[in-house]
């Protein structure tokens, strides 16, 4: 029998083991956005040139938390089925106000404040 971690714990472990140098500041309030905030949620900020984000999207979706997709930098790139990506100038401004240094960026947000941040390439397995 194979033991599996709880999905949220797996996501937190993956986000916490980043080699990227995040400039997003923990504890800051999210900039203005078009969605109604949840008590705890995951925000994925990405662009068209991130490559294959399939494993990252799966890990985020498996967290069990509401997921917000932000497609920045003006070139449309779809989010996985069931997610509607926020796009356009306002989405890019959101990314820049956060001081995102690399796409994709994944934020764990609690009550509107950034609890954890991860930026860069995702190549880890969440098993």
From TrEMBL:
<protein>
    <recommendedName>
        <fullName>Penicillin-binding protein</fullName>
    </recommendedName>
</protein>
<keyword id="KW-0732">Signal</keyword>
<feature type="signal peptide">
    <location>
        <begin position="1"/>
        <end position="22"/>
    </location>
</feature>
